[in-house]
Amino acid sequence: MTRTTATLVGFVAVLLWGVLALLTVGSAPTPPFLLNALCFAIGGTLGLIWTAASGGLGQLKAVPLHVYLMGTVGLFGYHALYFSALRLAPAAEASLIAYLWPLLIVLFSGLLPGETLRAGHVFGALVGFAGAALIVTGGAAGFDAVALPGYLLAMACAVTWSSYSVLSRRFGTVPTASVAVFCVASAILSLPMHLIFEETVWPSGGLGWSSAILLGLGPVGLAFYVWDIGVKRGDIQMLGTASYAAPLLSTVVLVLAGVAAPSWSLALAAFLITGGALLAARASLKGVP
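RE: above sequence
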């Protein structure tokens, strides 16, 4: 597989994540850890079936334990935080803050061997975080203190996923099949957390169950496998740049579905986050100081 092909494969994950917020809202009122368990069980089981069918189960034994731990923390931690954020804050705003992860990938990738963090990266980060600040303060509407816990969880999402993605680059020889183990482990971790902290509320009706199943098949399933290929074998800087389409796509989907109302402050925040990300990418790709 060429570097360009791997990058395009990784971008499929971005398209799938564009509907993550909408499907998460559709799965309500299922609590976060139960939703985690359901979705990761689907994504992990299908991954193991595919691995077994392709004769790749044996290679999983050679994967170091610390890689499994890193992958599980990345997947389990990010989605537990994400689902919780969308329960505690408006979906569009929480989703946009969480989608600062593409910008952070570009920044963190500057710490990788052979990469350099430039002034353009820092300036792009400031512009992107200005967009997040606009969302948190509610624009002209003012600061919504009630939603602050959700906003903070969404920010933790961004840090968790960007860290996981950049660290994955350091383990380029680890087979993508290992993602199936990450998913299964995340499902197993989610179950006791659900039993301890949550009341069991299954997805409601056809919409709830279809949303949960689609989450497990796509944004919380196939997306992880193609993303792993992209960040390990593709151009991580270019993939990070392409990922900046995700917050706009996610917000447009929410607005079209009637979950979020269009507003100038939301549009400006999306513009700032995407614009800041592009500035950082330009510094990375063209070496602008």
